[in-house]
Amino acid sequence: MEEETSSSGRSSPLRRELRPRKERRWESDTSSTSSPVRRGRGRGRGRPMGRAPTRGRAGGRRGRGGGQSDRGDSVAAVLQERQQNFRARIEEMSDEERKQLLIKAGELHPSLLLHIIDRPAPQGGFHPQPSAETPDWCTCLKCRDMPTQAERICCGRPANQCQSLLPDFNLLILDDLVLQVAQMYRQDVLALPQDEDYNKGKRHAAYRQYILWHHGRLGVGVRRIIPSCCVWAIRDKYPDQYGQYVGFVPSRLG
C-alpha cells in the first residue's frame, strides 16, 4: 500500500489506473490542463456527438452546389464538342460520300428521313408552337397548352429555370445516343422488335427516361404525368409528322 499513495495523500498513477473507466474519462474531459486525449485527432470528446461545426456544414453545401454546376458545364461541353465533330466530318466529305450517307441513313431509319424530306403539315393534330403567352398554371414560362386538364401541370421551377433547360435533361432525356441505349436494353429484355417509326420510338423512350430520372422507377401501374414543358421539349425534338400524340394514359390498375 505504500506504493499506491504518496505522502501528500494524492493518488499515485497505479491507483489512478484502477479507477472505473467512466470516472477517468470524466476527469480528462473537464480538466483545465492539457491532456493527451484532448490533443489527439478525431472527434473532440468535449463536442456533442452527431453534430458537426456549422461552418463545415455550410461549406459542404457550397461544395455540392459547385459540383452540380461543374457537371452541368461538362455535360454541355461534351454535347457541343460531339456536335462540332459531327459537322466537321460532314464538311470533310465529298458530295458522293454525303449522298451515300443519306442513303444509308434512309435504310436504317426510313421514317426519320421521310419526315425530314416531306415535312407534311399537321392534319388535325395538336402541336402548339412556343409563344410569348404561357398558361396561367405555368411558373417556368416554358409550358404550352395540353389537350386534357390532367396534363396541364408545370415543373414548378422559377421563371427561366425550367427543368427542360437543365443540362442533365438535355443529356438523359433528349440525347439520341442515350435514348438508343435505353431502347436497345428494353428491346433485349422484353424481346421487342425495333421501332419502325424513329421519332415515335425516341419520344416514348424519352418519356420513360424522364419518369425513371425524376421518380426513380418504372413498372406496371407506375404512371406519372410529365410536366407540359418537358413533354413539348421532347415532342419538339422528336415530333409526329401529323401532330398526333397519345398523351397521358392512366394506369389500368389505378
Give a short overview.
With about 250 residues, the protein is an all-alpha fold. The chain contains ten helices and no strands.
Features:
single chain, 254 residues, mainly alpha, 10 helices, globular, disordered N terminus
By secondary-structure content and strand pairing, the structural class works out as mainly alpha
What does the radius of gyration come to? Answer: 32 Å
Work out the number of β strands.
0
Helicity, in percent?
40-55%
Question: What is the makeup of the main sheet?
Answer: none
- In round numbers, the mean pLDDT is 73
How many individual helices? Answer: 10
Low-pLDDT ranges = 1-9, 13-17, 22-65
Shape: globular
Helix-strand pattern = HHHHHHHHHH
- Residues in β-strands, percent: under 5%
The N- to C-terminal Cα distance equals 82 Å
InterPro entries: P2RX7_C
Organism: Crassostrea virginica
Pfam families: P2RX7_C
Region (Disordered): 1-74
Can you describe what's shown?
The termini are far apart. It is globular, with a radius of gyration of 32 Å. The chain contains ten helices and no strands. With 254 residues, it is mainly alpha-helical.
